[in-house]
Amino acid sequence: MSKTQEIIKLLNLEKHPLEGGYYKRTYTSKFKSFFSGLGEERFLASAIYYLFDENLVSRPHSLKQDEIWHFYSGSQIEVLLIYPDNISEMVTMGSDILRGDIPQLIIPAGSIFSAKLKKGGDYALIGASLSPAFDYEDYQDGDILDLINKFPQHGDFLKSCLPRREAKYEKTL
Description:
By secondary structure, the protein is mainly beta. It has 3 helices and 13 strands. The chain has helices at about 5-10, 145-150, 155-160, and strands spanning about 15, 20-30, 30-35, 40-45, 45-55, 60, 65-75, 75-80, 90-95, 105, 110-115, 125-130, 140. The strands form 3 sheets. It has a 6-stranded antiparallel β-sheet with strand order 1-2-5-12-7-10, with helices on one face. A 5-stranded antiparallel β-sheet has the order 9-8-11-6-13. A two-stranded antiparallel sheet has the order 3-4. Mean pLDDT is about 90; it is low at about 165-173.
């Protein structure tokens, strides 16, 4: 059994229905509040585990609220961030702070982001915390072709974040 399979079993993770990868919601606040930015009442916060391996990526998407990623274990991951002002940056998350890895990443609301294991890695386990709590209505897929046209310097990275089952796009990229 691979490390990825062991972690999936031990943490009782399941396939993420939209983003790719494996996850488990570990926390939802008991309390609700009205969030004017969303125009509705929501639970205050939520948290998940999220697992990457060489085939499990976080495909490009954005959320309506800020998200904070926490690196727990495994290999480095590369995260492409495209902020609402169209400035982009590539960030490496990991546990070796002296090498330049960051263990925590703030992803501002409305930013498009995508992530995958750094080449040669075997798995990475992160946590993600959101406030207000995540709701599937908050999730917006990023258009790969549009993103590649706007950010050609990140084209190879974006193509590599397509899940294997989306190979149909390869002909048009």
